[in-house]
Amino acid sequence: MNIKSLRGMHDLLPADSSAWQQLEGRLRELMQAYGYSEMRTPLLERTDLFCRSIGDATDIVEKEMYAFPDRHGESIALRPENTASCVRAALQHGLMRQGAQRIWYMGPMFRYERPQKGRYRQFHQVGAEVYGVAGAIVEVELMLLTARLWRALGISDSIRLEINTLGTDADRTAYREKLIQYFSDNSEQLDEDSQRRLGSNPLRILDSKNPEMQALIEAAPKLRDNLGDEATQHFEQLQEGLSAAGVEFSINPRLVRGLDYYSHTVFEWVTDHLGSQGTVCAGGRYDGLVTQLGGPETPAVGWAMGIERLLVLLEELVGAAESVPAHAYLVAMGDAAQTAALGMSERLRDAVPNLRLTNNVSGGNAKAQFKKADRSGAAVALVVGEHELSDGSFSIKPLRGDGEQQTLDFAQTVNYLTVLTEKD
Ligand code: ATP
Ligand code: MG
What we know:
The protein has an 8-stranded mixed beta sheet. A 5-stranded mixed beta sheet has the order 13-12-14-15-16, sandwiched between helices. It has helices at about 15-35, 45-55, 60-65, 85-90, 135-155, 170-185, 190-200, 215-220, 230-245, 290, 305-315, 335-350, 365-375, 385-390, 410-420; strands at about 35-40, 45, 65-70, 75-80, 100-110, 120-130, 160-165, 250, 265-270, 280-285, 300-305, 330, 355-360, 380-385, 395-400, 405-410. By secondary structure, it is of the alpha+beta class. The relative contact order is 0.11. Helix 5 packs parallel to helix 9. The structure holds adenosine-5'-triphosphate and magnesium ion. The site of adenosine-5'-triphosphate has 17 residues, from strand 6, strand 10, strand 11 and helix 11. Magnesium ion (MG) binds next to loops.
């Protein structure tokens, strides 16, 4: 029997890789443009890192984590997200003592969820994190960065920003009591999940998607009515900052996010085009996390974006990404030409730095080689036969549109190909 990939874990095939590469390239440029530096952490960490940061009573830790004992019985886990790892790394390498840090990451994450469109067991996130900066201004920067991405991708009309505040730890502790009281008084209306959460993580009940719970949730006490001055000011500063920067947003009082480490600002970029998997990018402030992981008091804020969801959205709204074909395909006629062609191609690559040149390396007659040249999508075929070998020339045959075949010496060929690459 042939071995297949694991459920919910997908291969990226060559035909689909340009969409990823184009998006990844754009993200790198964007992060650079805002002064964010990349961080790469291991895919495996001690399980405890995620339990201590994300929280024991969260979906991720309760049921979604790929955690298992290693060969010495230590529990390790495939990272379900990257915020905890980044904080761990920043602490381990003393970055928290070096002033404000703007970092970003991109890579695979793992969650044992029920696979469906926009939800996989290995998926990819790009994220941005800022350490050492309190106040809402940096939150606005993080949102502006993403807003710029939506514009660059041509999807800003289909994606909107929702914000909320979770207040300070003290606000949340007081509010938690009120919620527990309210939901306990109405416990006969709670579904099974919510009953479980009542003891462990009552805020998450607000996040329930169960239609039968909606009226109860709607009437629940609001955190916004229970905020102290500090949180109110912070939230106002955020709204003023967003308005001043021209970013549209709406306040969603039910936005609580699924991870324990958030405080003050939380936000999501959502779309109506992906069904119930409508959150493309999500984040918030997590000032308590650094101390929770044993570090010094350090304000922190960030977001993470699901790359697969964004690509599904892009394909739906903008269409499939075009692949990037070769400029030229080299056809080598005869054994001597086959042997010499690779060396000649190297000289062309030296002289035309951006050249995308594919060599025929498997022989064959003219007809077979030209067929491959055509299928490669290249703009021209470069032909090397006995005649070309003798004087170091190339015959150039356009494969798209009209144009006659012509034979050019090396310098002319370089000019020809340079012009071709400049059309990119
Ligand atoms: P959801 O409510 O959809 O489960 P989440 O709150 O678990 O999302 P986060 O942990 O905040 O998601 O992750 C940030 C982003 O990563 C999500 O908004 C989404 O775009 C993406 N994401 C999360 N889980 C998956 C998954 N299993 N497959 C694909 N993308 C995912
Ligand atoms: Mg989830």
